[in-house]
Amino acid sequence: MAVDEVEDIAVDGLRWLTGTARETPGGGLAWPARPSEDAVEPMLYNGTAGIIPVLLEAWRHFGDDAYADTALRAARDLAARVDDLDDDSLYFGRTGLALVLRSVHDSLGDTAAGEAADRALRLVRSRFDGTRWGELFELMGGNAGIGLGALLCGDPDLAVLAVEPYLRTAERTANGVHWPHRPDTDSRLHHVSHGTLGIALALARVGGATGRGDLLDLALSAAADVVARDSAGPDGFLAPHSTPQFLPDLIDPVSYGWCHGPSGDAQLFRTLRDITADPAWTALADRCWHTVTHSGLPGRLRPGFWDNNGRCCGTAGVLALACDRIAEQRDAFDFADVLVADLTARAIRDGAGARWSNVDFRSTPGDLEPQPGWAGGNAGIVRELLRYVRLARGGDPGYAFTWPDQPPVSPPA
Predict the structure, then answer these.
(1) CA–CA separation, 320 vs 106, rounded Å?
(2) Is 271 helix (H, G, I), strand (E, B) or coil?
(3) Residue range 161-179: mean pLDDT, rounded
(4) What's the pLDDT tens digit per position in 216-255?
């Protein structure tokens, strides 16, 4: 469809998104995870912190200061919540707030946001027990994400503190290493969100930035473990969700999105490509893309196959990688066009704007309530649609906000 039409849907998505905000004391704005809920949610995953990046994106894309003003009001509420959280992680807790507040300071010059970001990281550091911050021990909810967030906030010492425990807790496998994502399971998850490759991504980024070769070596060993689990070579790449399968009655053994599939795996391989300059990682990223583009997504091929439009486990997350490849490798727009056409066709549009409903095939009715946030809602989808529009017009392939587990694009070879 025409690029202008895609941009119009993104604008409608932003209108619905801002319309679901709640006024908070002190002139702030905040969002619930779902519009039907009363309580607002600060976290990066599906709350206010994950919405601010798309507001910054819209401000830069359109040059409309109304989006910057909305981001500042949201940051005001976020700063007020830094001291009250029980979770310190990147996606579910205080580190995510720190990263977004630091970005608001850097982009919009808001000193209060910068001071709140510093306070948040001081609290994160104070709550470290010497090995971990809580039950989860991976990227979304544990040490790896805290390390990535701290690094992007300009605190490499905290980043190293967060990832060093992986050196002494790694479990040796036949082909490398892995870790339990939580202490109460025998399953070992393999992909970016909760598994080995997410930990490898943090080890590589922190090790590369701080000159810690031992951290980078451990990242390479972790990647080797998952590469050895591939079942789709030599052209493709597809590793199982976990070994043994975690929650087999609820979770498919293979997936294709960012969380547990080759769309996310490729982001780790892109990271290792940039840090090591080894072309083997480019080849693995290419194999991931081959599998994604031959999987049948975004079609709904069977119940549960591809029921998510969002950034976390759905179509928008695949679009992020498609646009990375367009920017870096001059890939054709063909598959990105398919993804965008599917997202635009599935948008619910009315006088309130545009939003997207995901599907739970196990429920009746299966259509889920649209969400404003990053993981499964408007913030994650609109951010990728705006970037697609810029690329289609020959514009900047980067983002206003660097997502911690998606490396910036490199210039084409």
Answers:
(1) 23
(2) helix
(3) 98
(4) 999 999 999 999 999 999 999 999 999 999 999 989 999 9
CA distances (Å), 206 to each of 161, 275, 357, in order?
Answer: 10, 11, 36
Q: Are 162 and 205 in contact (CB under 8 A)?
A: no
Of the candidates 45, 52, 119, the one whose C-alpha atom is nearest the C-alpha of residue 89 is 45
Residues 352, 51, 94, 76, CA torsion sign: negative
* Close Cβ partners of 327 (under 8 Å, ≥ 6 residues apart): 391, 397, 409, 412
300's enclosing H/E stretch is: none
Q: From 306, 298, 310, select the one nearest 379 (Cα to Cα).
A: 310
- Which one, of 49, 40, 138, 130, lies nearest residue 89 by Cα? 138
CA distance linking residue 354 with residue 290, whole number of Å: 31
Over the Cα atoms of the chain, what is R_g?
Answer: 20
Please identify which residue in the block is written with the tokens 């990647």.
223
- For 232, residues 6+ apart whose C-beta sits below 8 A from its C-beta are 238, 287, 291
Question: pLDDT band for position 413 (50/70/90)?
Answer: low
pLDDT value of residue 305:
95
What's the pLDDT tens digit per position in 5-40?
A: 999 999 999 999 999 999 999 999 999 999 999 999
The model's pTM: 0.98
The string over 151-175, giving b where at least 16 C-beta atoms fall within 10 Å of a residue's C-beta and e elsewhere, is bbbebbebbbbbbbbbeeebeebee
Q: What is the mean pLDDT of the chain?
A: 97
- With 0-12 CB in 10 A as exposed, 13-18 as middle and 19+ as buried, what is 184? exposed
In the chain, the largest separation of any two C-alpha atoms, in whole Å, equals 58
Cα 65 from Cα 178, distance rounded (Å)? 46
Question: Could you tell me the two tokens for 5?
Answer: 């039409």
Task: Give the DSSP letter of residue 188.
Answer: E
Token digits of residue 172? 């040796």
Query: What span, in angstroms and rounded, lies between the C-alpha atoms of 139 and 103?
Result: 20
What SS3 state is found at 322?
A: helix
CA separation (Å) from 291 to 149, 180, 235, 281, 286? 30, 27, 8, 15, 9
Helix axis angle, 94-108 to 65-80, nearest 10°? 140
- DSSP state, 248? T
